[in-house]
Amino acid sequence: MAIIEPFALAIGFLLSYVYDFVASYGLSIVILTIIINIIIFPLTLRQTRSTKRMQDAQADIKKVQKQYKDDKEELNKQIAELYKEKGINPLGCVVPLLVQMPIWFALFRVLREPLLFIPKEANLYSQLGDHSSVLFFNMDLQIPASTISTWIDRAPYIVLILLVVGTALIQQNQLTKKQGKSNNQQQQQMQMIGKVMPIFFGFISWTLPSGLVVYFLTGNIFRIGQQALIVKIEENQPDKNTKENEKNNEKDQENKEGPVNDDSRKKRKKRRRK
Question: For a disulfide at 75, which of 62, 68, 140, 214, Cβ 3.0-4.6 Å?
Fold first, then answer.
């Protein structure tokens, strides 16, 4: 794909540049993954926030759908008001993901076929020609675990894949642990997909170059910390909004009362401080 090529060439150059400093192919992939995740963090923040808010609002959405099931026009109106009240952007989950897609596909291609995108004059390009010079914890990151003949040699690759599955499960559980069981069929399907996807990633990791598996693992660990931070911010957000609303209500009340009741307002403020 033409749109992927510039991204892939840029990522290939960045990977070779990092390698010049750390002299480790595996560590270069780890650092590259972290750098890219930091760059796209604002997009991921919006996506995660929108996903969490949509999940938290499912109970309210279901009530509105049940209440206005016979009036489609009013249903759409109430849903729109609910989204506004909860701070939900219906496209907030999709748009950031679409913007990130070219970057993820480019990174995938670079790690799958590094010699096509790494500059030929770079040190990493010549090192990749000798598989023994780019080992990472005794793993050749240019080959998949499925191509290794003996189970003893496969052991570190299997551990790596199991770590990918485990961290993916933790990541999925972060956003769903507070929801519990739901009677909503759509939400049940989403929870099921969340449980199946880590296993799917483990399955495809068996046949992909191990450098990509290192990328999966690094990305999962980074996003676990990232989502923990976002969830904490979101949990504190209602308290902040409540305080702002209280201040706005006080101002409105003061404007209605006028200057005559200035002393009584001061007394109320003193009581609140106490």
Answer: 68
Residue 184 lies in a domain: yes
Which residues, including other chains, have CB under 8 Å from residue 200's CB and lie 6 or more apart?
none
Whether residue 49 lies inside any domain: the answer is yes
Domain that holds residue 34: 4-238
- Asked whether 60 and 82 are in contact (CB, 8 A), the reply is yes
Q: What is the pTM of this model?
A: 0.72
Count of domains observed in the chain: 1
pLDDT value, residue 60 = 81
Three-state SS at 140 = strand
Confidence at residue 167, expressed as pLDDT on a 0 to 100 scale: 92
Q: Comparing 65-79, 200-214, 245-259, which segment has the lowest mean pLDDT?
A: 245-259
d(CA 255, CA 81): 27
Residue 83 belongs to a domain: yes
The rounded distance, in Å, linking the Cα atoms of 148 and 127 is 21
How far apart are the C-alpha atoms of 242 and 244, rounded to whole Å? Answer: 5
| Residue 259 domain flag | no
Take residue 67 and report the two structure tokens written for it.
């209440």
Of the candidates 226, 222, 203, 223, the one whose C-alpha atom is nearest the C-alpha of residue 213 is 203
151-176 b/e (C-beta count within 10 Å ≥ 16 → b): eeebebbeebbebbbebbbebbebbb
The pLDDT value given to residue 232 = 78
